[in-house]
Write a structure and sequence with these properties.
- The structure is a single chain.
- By secondary structure, this protein is α/β, with parallel strands linked by helices.
- It is built from ten helices and seven strands.
- The strands form two sheets. It has a four-stranded mixed sheet with strand order 2-1-4-3, with helices on one face.
């Protein structure tokens, strides 16, 4: 009985020890089970094929193959691609994700790219790059982003660079530069530059931008910020009278002490804004969104009698405590959970308004129109004038 160490043909790793008892066929059968291959031939380290059990000595190192000729250690180390060269197909492990493609896909369209130089066959060693290491499954390891690699691989396949909506073009551009795929770089560079321009165009305007527009516009001309993005801008204590802010985004703006009298804020988004102490005489706020806005101490009453129009406005959770809202039109407005303590609401129109859980304590509702209003759980403590039933039904 002899003991031998067997390796798979062309490798010097993961060897296994076998006991040789009766025949070469018995040894090949045992190797087939252990290595999970169909072992057919047996070689010495020098490449001599063994066909007789008598040629095997104790503790010999031998190699088994599935039928191919002996692969020398030197040839295996120099080429490193013996298995893959027999097939046009390659497997790449890019950042943990597997991609199966062909050698021609990686080499034909961009012959000077890093991928082409890694997998081009031939003797031109000046341009070739040694392929990367392979994982346990034989895939070539590339430590880059698989998300950005996929559109580049498709570009090499069919020549069209197609990006899904959730793919950042700037990220794909960086990968294209890394792999040296110049055709994709030429396509992506103007695309990324264009995205940057669009982002700059849609960025919120600042206080400086608004002041520049005001100072450069003659007083005889109307100043329009219709649909403009001013989210988060500090516009406090500015004189912005009679400006058109229709559909503008003023979310989270600082507008305390600002004069917005005569402004058109129809359907504007003022949610979360701070408008404490603002002047809002004869303002137009039809269907504007002022949810959770701070309007403490604001003045809506025009001495000339022009009413502020806030019909259909959303004031859910807003704070209007201490505001002068005499004569304001709040028809079908949403004031659920709003704070209206100590407000002047004389002759105000609140017909059809949602005042559920609204705090109206200490407010003046003399001759206010509350017809059809939702007064569920509304607070009316310490009213300055009695609230007559006729006000809610007329």
């Amino acid at each position: 009985m002899k003991r031998v160490i067997l390796f798979i043909n062309g490798t010097d790793v993961n060897g296994k020890v076998f006991m040789v008892t009766h025949s070469i066929d018995e040894l090949l059968t045992a190797a087939s089970l252990k290595f999970e291959i169909v072992a057919k031939r047996l070689f010495t380290p020098q490449g001599g094929e063994i066909e007789d059990l008598k040629l095997i000595r104790d503790d010999d190192v031998l190699y088994v193959s599935i039928g191919e000729d002996f692969i020398s250690k030197k040839l295996s180390e120099e080429q490193g691609l013996l298995n893959t060269k027999k097939s046009e197909w390659l497997t790449l492990n890019v950042g943990g994700k597997y991609f199966v493609t062909t050698r021609s896909t990686l080499t034909n369209k961009e012959p000077m790219s890093m991928l082409a130089r890694m997998f081009t066959q031939g003797e031109d060693t000046e341009w070739r790059i040694q392929p990367s290491e392979r994982d346990e499954n034989g895939a070539f390891l590339i430590d880059r982003s698989p998300t950005y690699f996929e559109p580049l691989l498709n570009y090499l396949r069919h020549g069209q660079l197609i990006l899904d909506s959730n793919i950042n073009a700037a990220g794909v551009l960086e990968e294209a530069r890394f792999y040296g795929i110049e055709g994709a770089v030429d396509i992506l560079e103007p695309m990324v530059a264009g995205f940057g321009a669009v982002e700059n165009e849609t960025a919120p305007l600042t206080r400086r931008d608004v002041l520049k527009a005001i100072l450069s516009t003659p007083t005889t001309q109307e100043l329009r910020f219709q649909g403009v993005n001013l989210a988060g801008a500090d516009l406090s204590r500015l004189d912005l009278r009679n400006i058109n802010f229709k559909y503008a985004n003023l979310h989270g703006c600082l507008l305390f002490g600002t004069n917005l009298s005569g402004c058109n804020l129809e359907r504007a988004d003022l949610s979360g804004s701070n408008m404490e102490g603002a002047q809002l005489l004869s303002v137009k706020m039809l269907c504007a969104n002022l949810e959770a806005a701070n309007l403490q101490g604001c003045n809506f009453e025009d001495p000339c009698g022009l009413r502020a129009n806030m019909e259909g406005v959303n004031l859910k959770g807003a704070n209007l405590e201490g505001s002068n809202m005499a004569g304001v039109n709040l028809r079908v407005a949403t004031l659920k959970n709003a704070k209206l303590k100590n407000c002047d609401l004389r002759t105000a129109v609140l017909a059809g308004a949602d005042l559920e859980c609204c705090d109206l304590s200490g407010s003046d509702l003399h001759e206010a129109n509350l017809r059809g209003a939702n007064l569920k759980d509304a607070a009316f403590e310490l009213m300055l004038t009695p609230l007559h039933m006729s006000q809610t039904v007329r």
